[in-house]
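Follow-up to my earlier ticket, as requested here are the two runs.
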Amino acid sequence: METKLEVRPKVELVVQHSPEEVIARIKAAIEENRTACRGTVLGSTIEVGVPPDERHFWSPQFSLQVEPHEDGAIIFGRIGPQPHVWTMLVAGYAIFGFSSLFALFFAYSQWRLAQPMWALWVVAAGVALTGVIYGTARIGQRLGADQTDHLCHFIRDTLVASTETERVAA
């Protein structure tokens, strides 16, 4: 398991196919393997996820952007939770982060006015709750690790298998 501190790990892959070919191959693989992965293609953006019957709260989603590269195409990707889960995590970070910041300013005011600085407890609670959200996200990553590996292998196998087929045919 990875030890990086990324909540939404990124992927960068250079392939020897044109962007149009990459998109067509992934789109065809999604349509052929509906039981393995589900996805949508809109322009040069690809979203790949697990089928609804296998999906749970921490199921990952692979967001890919395909762009031209001197060697063919470059694929930029982010692996993360479903959008509603990601929104909830970001909202939690924002709420507890801004609350802690506001409480810190309030504690400074209390200190300057020689009053009891009870707002520091709010700062500590906000930092602790932000840590809880981060820990929850890391646990979610572990719970969705098998599905994440499955999605990564699906993309890699789709692009590598098609390259090997071309080499054999040539």
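Run two:
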Amino acid sequence: MTALDPIVEFRNDHRKVRDGLLDIIDALKAKDVVKARNILGDINTAVGPHFRYEEENLYPTLKIFLGEYVDQLIKEHDGVIETARACAQLLQKDKLTDEEAETAANAARALLVHVSNCDGLAILSERLKPQELKELGEKLARARKAAVSLLDWAEKIRKK
């Protein structure tokens, strides 16, 4: 298996989620609930391994730089997970009111802030030793191979 570059993969994950969130916002503006639901499902699938990798591997490693701020990052994940749950529930409807569509679009915008902030961790990761980066790449590959969605991971595996 080819080794993953965890920094490159981390940033690419953020780009995919950014684009997905922007696509959800567009779908909600067009009142295309099915499209928004499908995109959210794709994000849920992609983000599960990413969050798992962050909380189980990356954040503990970055604690050397961030100290207890890592706890704040986990709290941000709590908010993202709750927002994703609420959006998934809302998007189970066949139609949304204007207010519901705007609420969901605002939630997607709020998640964009987390994506942007989180991407900044890549610059800190650049200061890790090559062996640490190699191990992080292996751990990211394992999280992806497990393929547990965000909401399933949060409910069944995540340690709180």
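The only thing I checked on run two: Residues 140 and 150 are 14 Å apart (CA to CA). Let me know what else you need.
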